[in-house]
Specification:
It is a single chain. The chain is α+β, with helices and mostly antiparallel strands. It has one domain. 38% of the residues lie in helices and 12% in strands. The protein has a two-stranded antiparallel ribbon. Helix 1 packs across helix 2. The chain starts with 18 loop residues before the first helix and ends with a strand.
Length: 98
């Protein structure tokens, strides 16, 4: 999460929701093919999850996160979020294998 922190929006006066919980909620919804309104109570309200997902998608934030993580490697890599298992796993694969 420390490596992802620069990609999250800055606080502008009012307290922000927990970015880790929001990102985890977005991944949970997508992994389980759920509607936003079906988000478990442990995550933020569905409107917050959807708003952050929409904002991040429209602004290219999630793509920049993946590019940023991939660029930290010595060799060019592609970063993917594997949501097939029980917990999200961020993996880096050499580009020549994709």
């Amino acid at each position: 999460m420390v490596r992802l922190q620069p990609f999250f929006p800055k606080s502008h006066g009012k307290p922000r929701v927990d970015d880790r919980r929001v990102l985890s909620g977005i991944i949970f919804i997508n992994r389980n093919s759920l509607r936003w309104c079906d988000a478990p109570r442990g995550y933020d309200p569905p409107k917050t999850l959807y708003s952050r997902w929409k904002w991040g998608s429209d602004k290219g934030v999630f793509a920049r996160m993946m590019d940023g993580l991939a660029s930290e490697a010595a060799a060019p890599k592609t970063v993917m979020i594997d949501v097939r298992g029980h917990a999200p796993l961020v993996q880096a694969c050499p580009r020549k294998y994709l």
